[in-house]
Specification:
This protein is mostly helical. It is built from five helices and no strands. The mean pLDDT is about 90.
Length: about 100
């Protein structure tokens, strides 16, 4: 797969340096693998989002009430918790924007 990806980038401006091309492919692969792992671990629990929240919310509520985990409280209170496909799309867009900015230098 690496060779096919490198062949795809072979004639793309900015990717003439093999190290730049390999870094870009490695970064995108890491993003993809991370997304797949995250979703597969969600599936392994066998619970949907509502079931997971019902089981874990009492525990999280007690943890938050201690005041020792303000960032967890912020996540529970303020985070939007979008669907995985939205998180993936935004993350990949961020990675691609970062790679594009590096190519412009």
């Amino acid at each position: 797969m690496l060779v096919a990806s490198l062949a795809t980038l072979n004639k793309v401006p900015g990717f003439d340096d093999i190290d730049v091309a390999m870094c870009a492919i490695g970064t995108i692969n890491a993003c993809l693998i991370g997304a797949v792992r995250s979703e597969s671990s969600d599936l392994k629990s066998g619970m949907n989002k509502a079931e997971w929240q019902k089981v874990w919310w009492p525990y999280l509520e007690r943890i938050i009430a201690t005041g020792r985990f303000p960032m967890l409280a912020k996540v529970a209170r303020d985070a939007r918790h979008p669907f995985p496909n939205i998180v993936f799309d935004k993350g990949l867009e961020t990675v691609l924007d970062g790679l594009a900015s590096q190519l412009q230098h």
